[in-house]
Design a protein that fits this description.
With about 400 residues, the chain is an alpha+beta fold. The protein is built from 16 helices and 14 strands. About 45% of the residues lie in helices and about 15% in strands.
């Protein structure tokens, strides 16, 4: 079995994740393609992930790619998580992930409605009719927020308490449910937000008016194989458990998908990893590099087994739910954390000694990050111990 050293993995990370200076890009969509997708649970993450990997790019370039060129698209996919994807990848994500997600959520919502006595004895059909009415209302408006659509479709204001036995649970409207279903079905898309680039208050648009072409219908098996192929090219080599975790699929689905691909097993310091069979050539180590990655960046969130780049820093940089905060990287591993204070200052803390030359690279990246924020002060959606400490 071919032995793949940690140093080789870190060299690949630097080059293929466009963090090494020589691999950075001035093309927003190309940066997204390099990472398969950009993590977008926190809207600011998308912009800051591009900033860390971009050359001569600003927030306006990301907004142009999302809302004018529309080369990128927000959609729910793996693990019911929000991502920004290259628009050509939308059919793959829809067939491999979003379609199953829509079916699961439809059953879940129908159960909540049935328990609440809503839906005239057939809550799933009732919900589908509300979704159709909402879609037609959106077609008529061209674009709209959830609040605007709820004025056109009174049923969207239906209140459901999903956990009535819990004292803290309160009734909520089904607007979010219906918009999620329409989105995962590929009928509507998230359009421009109502505020800054860190806002999560999106308007919605019909897919046919927003996308250059309808989302192609792909075979689910073919789509899963293409998604894993892209993931292995960017994140491989990695154990099969990392693929299962990142995709959110069952182990059986992962094994069936891998059977469609030509892969080889490699030794990762005693753990068996997988790599595409045509991707065994070593990647030359790039010159020393540093990067400041935002909370939930796709690089640290790309693997479940993280010791080879995280070291002993998990307790300070991750929250209790496994979400990473802002992290400092040097030559393929995490060496510290950072935060933006209320006055806009970018403050860093190194958790290990990396030497004067490396510290200078970190300082330069901190200055670069400050330029992206401008007057904005977005707070990470998930707060980690070190980020809280640095901003106290």
């Amino acid at each position: 079995m071919y032995a793949f050293t940690t140093e080789q993995r870190q060299a690949r990370l630097g080059i293929r994740h466009r963090l090494a200076v020589e691999s950075r890009s001035g093309d927003v969509a190309e940066i997204a393609r390099s990472l398969v997708v950009l993590h977008a649970t926190d809207p600011a993450t998308v912009h800051l992930s591009v900033a860390a990997r971009g050359t001569a790019l600003g927030p306006a370039h990301v907004e142009r790619a999302l809302y004018d060129d529309r080369s990128l698209l927000r959609m729910l996919a793996m693990r019911r998580t929000m991502f920004v994807a290259p628009v050509e990848l939308a059919p793959v994500l829809h067939a491999s992930c979003a379609g199953d997600l829509a079916a699961r959520q439809r059953r879940t919502y129908a159960k909540y409605l049935a328990d609440a006595g809503i839906g005239d004895g057939d809550p799933e059909s009732w919900l589908a009719a509300v979704a159709d009415d909402t879609y037609r209302a959106l077609l008529a408006r061209g674009s709209a927020t959830g609040a605007q659509l709820s004025k056109d479709v009174p049923a969207l204001r239906t209140q459901v308490n999903t956990s009535p036995e819990k004292s803290y649970s309160k009734p909520t409207s089904i607007t979010t449910w219906v918009l999620l279903l329409l989105g995962t079905e590929g009928r509507i898309v998230r359009a421009r937000p109502g505020g800054s680039w860190s806002s999560s208050q999106y308007s919605w648009a019909p897919a046919e008016s927003w996308l250059p072409a309808p989302i192609d219908e792909l075979d689910a098996g073919v789509a899963r194989a293409e998604l894993v192929r892209r993931w292995l090219r960017t994140f491989g080599p990695a154990p099969i458990g990392d693929i299962k975790w990142w995709t959110g699929w069952t182990l059986g689905q992962v094994r069936t998908t891998l059977a469609r691909l030509e892969t080889v097993e490699v030794d990762l310091d005693g753990t068996t990893g997988l790599l595409l069979a045509d991707d065994l050539d070593p990647v030359p180590a790039p010159p020393p590099w540093a990067a400041l990655l935002p909370a939930l960046d796709p690089t640290p969130m790309g693997w479940q087994s993280r010791d080879w780049y995280l070291g002993a820093h998990k307790e300070q940089l991750f929250d209790r739910n496994g979400n990473i905060g802002p992290s400092i990287w040097f030559d393929g591993r995490i060496v510290g954390g950072w935060a933006q204070r209320k006055d806009g200052e970018i403050v860093t803390r190194l958790l290990e000694d990396i030497g004067a030359d490396a510290r200078a690279l970190v300082t330069a990246e901190a200055e670069r990050a400050a330029g992206w924020y401008g007057e904005l002060r977005p707070i990470p959606r998930f707060r980690t111990p070190l980020e809280r400490e640095l901003t106290a």
